[in-house]
Amino acid sequence: MSEQGNGTSTQGLAGAVVVLTGAGRGIGRDAALALASNGAAVHVSDADIDAANAVVGEISDAGGMAHAEYCDVSSESSVSELFESIGRLEGHIDVLVNNAGIYPLLPFAETTVADYDRVMDINVRGVFLCTMAALPLMREHGGGIIVMSSGAGTLASIAQPTARSLPLYGASKAAVDRWALGVSRELSAMGIACNVLYPGAFVRTRGLAALGLSDADMAATVAPDFVAPAIVYLAAHRSGEISGQLLKASEFGTVWGPGSAAPAV
């Protein structure tokens, strides 16, 4: 598996087994709907099982294949139960989308150790636990891992809107980026592509208004389904020509992916 290429080959999504964490709402929900509409069997995982069931209902109503799964990604036992259950049902996994995450708006002076632990446990430990649990179900035939992250982890100036009350979230995403890209070479040798994906723009999810964005920033926000096409593309093109990359959904189709003037990465 090379770490770069033109993105032309595809394994497709028809019948592919996809596990998507944090899929009860927002980016995860829209990605689940898009993946299912392309023929994937989607395991919709969320700590809110009612939200997961609602997404599965939408997928089923549209004729897709999906299963609702409870999972607290910060809990080793919960993650183990999830992937053991999927292993018994499916026998393997083709794609893992590590999407679960939280972003509490906490000024530093008001942040507790419990707040720190919760953010890091879900946003960092959760990615590690899910990736490790998925590994035995991917090693024999390969697969793809997509790690959803954020530009908040690459803060270049305190003037950026993500600097306001998001230091823990940004730190957690910086840690995830470094870890995912660091292990991508090992995973590539096992036939597993691993990439980090940023939205590349503010996504209109719950809590965005609390950031106090300017009118100009709000005008540049995008809907949660903005990210879904990039996730679908990476899931379908999991044969390894795109691996070990930090990609932006906002650059999908221009800098990378179909129709891009340059190579895929």
CATH-level-2 architecture: 3-Layer(aba) Sandwich
Measured between the Cα atoms of the first and last residue, the distance is 14 Å
User: Biggest sheet: strands side by side, in what order?
Assistant: 3-2-1-4-5-6-7
User: Superfamily at the CATH H level?
Assistant: NAD(P)-binding Rossmann-like Domain
Percent in strands:
5-15%
Structure description:
The protein is α/β, with parallel strands linked by helices and 265 residues long. The protein has one domain (17-251): Rossmann fold (3-Layer(aba) Sandwich), CATH 3.40.50.720. It contains seven helices and seven strands; from the N terminus they run βαβαβαβαβαβααβ. The protein has helices at residues 26-37, 49-61, 76-90, 113-134, 167-189, 215-219, 228-236; strands spanning 17-20, 41-46, 65-70, 95-98, 143-148, 192-198, 246-248. The protein has a seven-stranded parallel sheet, sandwiched between helices. The longest helix has 23 residues, at 167-189. The two termini are 14 Å apart. Mean pLDDT is 86; it is low at 1-9.
What is the structure about, briefly put?
The chain has helices at about 25-35, 50-60, 75-90, 115-135, 165-190, 215-220, 230-235, and strands spanning about 15-20, 40-45, 65-70, 95-100, 145-150, 190-200, 245-250.
Task: Set out the fold topology.
Layout: E1 17-20, H1 26-37, E2 41-46, H2 49-61, E3 65-70, H3 76-90, E4 95-98, H4 113-134, E5 143-148, H5 167-189, E6 192-198, H6 215-219, H7 228-236, E7 246-248
Parallel strand pairs: 1-2, 1-4, 2-3, 4-5, 5-6, 6-7
What tags apply to this protein structure?
single chain, alpha/beta, Rossmann fold, seven-stranded parallel beta sheet, 7 strands, 14% strand, globular, disordered N terminus
